[in-house]
Write a structure and sequence with these properties.
It is a single chain. By secondary structure, the chain is α/β, with parallel strands linked by helices. It has a single domain, classed as 2,3-Dihydroxybiphenyl 1,2-Dioxygenase, domain 1 (Roll). Helices cover 27% and strands 33% of the residues. The protein is built from five helices and seven strands. The chain has helices spanning 9-12, 15-30, 48-59, 119-125, 160-170, and strands spanning 37-44, 62-70, 73-86, 89-97, 108-115, 143-148, 151-156. It has a seven-stranded mixed β-sheet with strand order 2-3-4-1-5-7-6, with helices on both faces. The radius of gyration is 16 Å and the shape is globular. The chain starts with 8 loop residues before the first helix and ends in a 14-residue tail after the last helix. It holds the Pfam family YecM.
């Protein structure tokens, strides 16, 4: 297996090996498939100060597409100047998630997201796989999740950057409150 190091690996952890491990685990559960379209990967910060520091770091390595409140905490998405690469797979974006208030989170790479043509077909083709399907019928951005030993894979119908563009155009992005980081 050939992996390429990335300038952010020393800060976030080895990203290409993380992607490789999750795809290897996915193939063990679901069988081999054509080269997957890995849309983005996610890093979860353990603290708000860490989140703010990482926002600055990521801004030097990519373009901020959006920052907004999702699930009660800020999430920022960046299009990397240099995508994460592993074999024929390239990962163009990274999502940075702040911790949810009142919860303890471990910092680190958390999940990858893949684009598939049909969530229903994916689930139907793998009846023995324990997919998380609670968000499968979400109107704006449906997904199916798969928990694996090394992290989670989420399957979506469209690239995150396309969803972000739509949310920006329709005013669906919930801004981070101006005083959210006060008191740090």
């Amino acid at each position: 297996m050939v992996t390429m190091s990335h300038p952010l690996d020393s800060t976030l952890g080895p990203m290409a090996p993380f992607v490789c491990q999750l795809l290897t685990e996915m193939h063990a559960v679901m069988g081999a498939s054509a080269s997957p379209v890995v849309d983005h990967l996610c890093y979860r910060a353990a603290t708000l100060p860490e989140y703010l520091d990482l926002k600055e770091t990521l801004a030097a390595h990519g373009v901020l597409l959006v920052e907004g409140m999702i699930g009660g905490r800020p999430i920022a998405t960046y299009r990397l100047h240099r995508p994460v690469s592993w074999q024929q797979v390239t990962v163009p974006c990274i999502e940075l998630a702040a911790p949810k208030a009142g919860r303890n989170h471990q910092a680190g790479l958390e999940h990858i997201e893949l684009v598939v043509p049909s969530l229903q077909a994916l689930v139907a083709a793998h009846p023995d796989v324990a997919f998380k399907t609670a968000n499968m019928d979400d109107v704006r951005n449906p997904d199916v999740g798969l928990m694996l030993p090394s992290g989670q894979i989420k399957f979506h119908l469209r690239p995150l950057s396309e969803v972000i563009d739509e949310e920006l155009c329709t005013g669906a992005v919930v801004p981070v409150p101006a005083d959210y980081y006060d008191g740090l």
